[in-house]
Amino acid sequence: MENYHHTYEKLIEITPKENVMVNEHLNKHTYTRLGGEADFYVTPGTYEEVQSVVKLANEQKLPFTMLGNGSNLIVKDGGIRGIVLNLKNLASIKINNTKVVAQSGARIIDTSRAALAKSLTGLEFACGIPGSVGGALFMNAGAYGGEIKDVLESTIVVDREGNLLELSADQLDLDYRTSNIPDNGYIVLEATFSMEKGSYDEIKAIMDDLTFKRESKQPLEYPSCGSVFKRPPGYFAGKLIQDSELQGKQIGGAQVSLKHAGFIVNVDDSSAKEYIDLIHFVQNTVKSKFGVNLEREVKIIGEDL
Question: Domain of 152?
């Protein structure tokens, strides 16, 4: 308990007190509305503060977790020990000619809209992706034929030791829904996207069309982690789940969406355990019926109760 208090005192020396929460319920910060408590939930306001928090975690040998905005994530019911970092206070978006520079905590949707406002083309595919810029780089987010690696030029990150690094897109090993960011323990602080001048009306028409497709096909009326599974080679995950007659399958408050089989929705105050159990049930059923392994796109972190 003494160490606990000491860590808190150190954290509020680094960043204002309102940026440090103790025993914070993470279900308030995830799209699934799942997850137990974080020992410390920290929302720094500058790059230097992020560096100092990382160095403090190292000094005190505290577990350290990057949350992002919680859109492609399941936090287990037992919560997360140590420090959980959220960069929601680093959310500026600046445009210089054809370069869009967005901080990690900015929503990738808002970044695509800022590009539209300047008639810049390249980020239209991201107009319906709910994650943050940092999260989008972390998993090379994509939709409707586009992905982050198509437009990313460079990024500024903090490494495990708290050092600030500038990396080119090529140094991130961006591939289908993956990057080397998690393996290297990088914390993304900002991203520079290289865009092209286009027609405002044409860009807006594409974004309107993609938004309509998303809203008409995806179960946005319920909490969810978005698309649960990666696309298996030669198949569509949603079609395999649908053909396995799993739509509407429910474990506790978690349900395979009736609107889009690739989504699992929290329809009735689901626990993280129920949600994860349903993911495993879907994987096992599809494997037994079609011999196809569904690989999770969503990340699961934290401890069981």
Answer: 93-202
- Active site residue: 37, 71, 147, 177, which one? 177
Q: How many domains does the chain have?
A: 3
Structure letter (DSSP) for residue 148: G
- CA 275 to CA 43: how far, in whole Å? 27
Task: Give yes or no for residue 32 having a pLDDT over 80.
Answer: yes
> What percent of the chain clears pLDDT 70, i.e. is strictly above it?
99
CATH of residue 260: 3.90.78.10
Q: What is the mean pLDDT of residues 51-64?
A: 95
Q: Contact 229/278 with Cβ under 8 angstroms?
A: no
227 is catalytic: yes
- Cα 61 to chain centroid distance, Å, stands at 25
Distance of alpha carbon 31 from alpha carbon 29, whole angstroms = 7
- Of 112, 224, 227, 270, the catalytic one is 227
